[in-house]
Amino acid sequence: MKLAVILLSLIVYVSASAYPQISYDFSPYGYLTKYGIPEAERIREAEEKILTNGRITGGSPASTGQFKYQAGLLSEITGIPDRRGICGASLVSPNRLLTAAHCWFDGQNQAWRLTVVLGSNFLNFGGTRILTSDVLMHPLWFPLLVRNDIAVIRLPNNVPLSDTIGTVALPVGLLSIQTFENEVGTASGFGITADGAGISNDQFLSFVSMNILSRNDCSRAFPLQATAATLCTRTVGGTSTCRGDSGGPLVVQRYGNPVLVGITSFGLAFGCQLGYPAAFVRVTSYLSFINENL
User: Fold this and answer.
1) One-letter-per-residue 3-state SS of the chain
2) Alpha carbon distances (Å) from 245 to 25, 64, 164, 220, 274
3) Are 135 and 153 in contact (CB under 8 A)?
4) Among residues 149, 188, 240, 245, which one is catalytic?
5) Active site residue: 102, 120, 188, 200, which one?
6) Which of 48, 99, 152, 197 has a beta carbon 3.0–4.6 Å from 247's, enabling a disulfide?
């Protein structure tokens, strides 16, 4: 599983001792049409094959209820009828979710309605499905440099919590001042599982564990984009987040319970398996914004 990839021709040169000098794009301009819609269509086709064949090949998806807080988002985009984009989100209360701002407005495309999918490993079948157009983006969301890429989704009613639907804790108290450096974080999402691949039959809800980097390492990897509000993870052995995972959760464990520390935001535009860090919104940097809108 890899990261929601973001495009707009920013060329950054990084020290060769840390990461290779390469050209890469980060801006979320056009994410919904370039990646969100194609990945949503591939997932729909793969899910239909699974339900027809009655089997899963190539591995096992996340088990039902393993990530109770994980939501899938299918976005309807203004001016693009009959096509939907894909993102992820995290349920933080019975009627609030957190996602990436570029899942709602990517600088070029504006979504006008979301289908929030909870309690299912399939995006297009099963689970609880809720329509909403009530999305609050951070007021300082700036797509060009991927600043403040966070939004709150408000549901019209409380969703019933169950064995397959639950909330994830926010990093409050002493957790609010931690950096989580060198801890292992777990990211989950419905995105693609390999560069150049379609949606595989074990695709639907996948997860990966990655090491959380220091702020200095994050800044070296993304000198123009990373700020104190960015959290980065180290990809190992081709494992990371990728197209379709945008807005999804990165959690760490505390006393056996998941705590939301990151929201999938950006990474390399031309590939997710190159060993380059993945970047997330650092949740502790936005607790005031989140709490004001819960």
Assistant:
1) CCCCCCCCCCCCCCCCCCCCCCCCCCCCCCHHHHHHHHHHHHHHHHHHHHHHHCCCCCCCCCCCCCCCCEEEEEEEECCEEEEEEEEEEEEEECCEEEECHHHCECCCCEEEEEEEEECCCCCCCCCEEEEECCEEECCCCEHHHCECCCEEEECCCCCCCCCCCCCCECCCHHHHHCCCCCCEEEEEECCCCCCCCCCCCCCCCEEEEEEECCHHHHHHHCCCCCCCCEEEEECECCECCCCCCCCCEEEEEECCEEEEEEEEEECCCCCCCCCCCEEEEEHHHHHHHHHHCC
2) 17, 18, 20, 23, 17
3) yes
4) 149
5) 102
6) 99
Does the pLDDT at position 147 exceed 80? yes
CA distances from 30 to 10, 85, 263 (A): 15, 11, 19
Does residue 25 carry a catalytic annotation?
no
* Per-residue pLDDT, 54: 34
Q: Which of 75, 120, 206, 246 is catalytic?
A: 246
Q: What are phi and psi of 183, to 5 degrees?
A: -80, 165
Closest CA to 8 of 227, 267, 269: 269
Side chain identity at 229, as an amino acid letter? A
Contact in structure between 245 and 264 (CB atoms under 8 Å):
yes
pTM: 0.80
- Amino acid identity of residue 16, one-letter, is A
Tell whether the model's pLDDT for residue 53 goes beyond 60: no
Cβ burial 107-144 (10 Å sphere, 16+ → b, else e): bbbebeebbbbbbbbbbbeebebbebeebbbbeebebe
The amino acid at residue 80 is I
